[in-house]
């Protein structure tokens, strides 16, 4: 936010001095338009500046006809709003409504509709929005450090969740408030928003690996939440629960890896074979526990399936999903 303020100040100052050097009337308006044109990402800057320029030109056309036919009465401004605003929204130029209104009100203050007056307003638009675009395109803050930190927070939260789940499987009387789930969810949402902004700062469209990463973690978080529901049904320690706890111990390490190694998947396959070889449960409680553990293994399979699809294989020589 601090850098954006500095960039806005520089764009406004440059626009004002440019208008002064070119002898354009009311140069301060160029600074105001530059302030309105500064945005947080490169692609949004381009799209918004185009919308504001188009809306302003369209608004000038509507206002010029109204002022020329009816005159410069204050109530005509209300008529302009009633006509132009819905027209701009339907034209897909709603981002330029405020900028267009600034230009139209400035034209109203001049009290004349001439080629010189309209040309002056367009010149102010080009100078103000032009310099805003230049400053937006020249530099945007890098997001890699913040994204790396959010990735670390997500993986730490997942690792702690797996430790807690393994602990509960070994000791069903363990109490846990689930705060790590909330921490992981918060980091994933913040990372997704930041990754989207990082992608919009690329002038050449391309896949954003950070978006893929946080998309993977969001899907895995859903699996973890379902795992918790299954584990909550395990009311006493059973041998199969200990085997699943060993898998969660392994996942605490796997979740930090950039590669998919497949070892946990193999361990789960062996565990599922062992489940099928067990005799049928003899009591209702045992049936319920075994059923919960079976569903838990299914969710583990889904969790690992997401990683298998979206992580790089250990044997590949290409670089990992996140540099």
Automatic annotation (TrEMBL):
- The residues covered by the Putative aromatic acid exporter C-terminal domain are 145-306
One Pfam family recorded for the sequence:
ArAE_1
The transmembrane residues are 58-85, 115-139
The cellular location(s) given in this protein's UniProt record come to: Cell membrane
Superkingdom in the source lineage: Bacteria
- Give the membrane topology, semicolon-separated if more than one: Multi-pass membrane protein
Gene3D superfamilies linked: Putative aromatic acid exporter, C-terminal domain (1.20.120.940)
Q: Which UniProt keywords apply?
A: Cell membrane, Membrane, Transmembrane, Transmembrane helix
Annotated protein name in UniProt: Aromatic acid exporter family protein
User: What is the scientific name of the source organism?
Assistant: Cohnella hongkongensis
